[in-house]
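Dear Dr. H.,

I hope your travels went smoothly. While you were away I took the liberty of generating a structure for the chain from your last submission, since the lab meeting agenda had it listed for discussion. I wanted you to have the full record in hand beforehand rather than looking at slides cold. The sequence, exactly as received, is reproduced here:
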Amino acid sequence: MLINWFTVFAQIFNFLLLVFLLKHFLYGRIISVMNAREEMIASKLQSAEQKMIDADNERELYLQKNKENDARCESLFTSASLEAEAQKKELIENARREVEELKERWHESLKEERETFLANLRKKTTTQIYAILRKILSDLSSADLEKNMTDTFLKKIRNLGNTEKNKIKDILEQSHYQAVITSMFEIPAEQQQIITTEISNVMGEKLEIQYISPHDHICGIDFRVKNYRIGWNLDDYIKFLEKEVDKTLDEELAR
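The corresponding predicted structure, in token form, is as follows:
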């Protein structure tokens, strides 16, 4: 087979010419378009990646703000709860204090009324009991009331036990054997001498006794040495009556 070298060279020339033309007129543009497209795609990818980063940042910021808002809400709720509890305690304490003050004022008022009542009772019963006692003793004895009181008083002195006598002697020694006898009525001088002698004999020492009759002294006779007292006095019965009345009032109020 014969080779047509002209045809071969012509085809080679045509191919090289085609390559030259393609490279000169088309390949550069294709490469430029491809590079531009690649850059555009890379730019879009970078933009998309940046948007994803921004979205993540926005999401983190949103979550952080939510956490801060939740913490703020919880703090406000806790603060409001504590404040409400404090106000509740304050209101309860104020109410309790007011009740205590009312209760105290009521007790003070009741105490004053009771003391007034007992004072009036004491005043009335003293006069009435003294009159009744005088009437009873005058009916039972030929002697008057004062003599009966004196006899009762001396009997009580004679019946003192040794322990009480020794106690009185010690007090008399400290007071230089001076004592006071108090009575509602004025004891005659002769009767005073009898009483002084009787008490001196019982105590075994000569005593100096002062006799007084104050107006506020309740029916009876008292022998006093410093803070020690012995005798018979209607005041003892009045005080007992006061205690009983006071006890009755307390029982009634407790119901």
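Two observations you may find useful: The chain has two domains: 26-140, 144-254. Strands lie at 178-183, 208-212, 220-225, 228-233.

With kind regards,
E. W.
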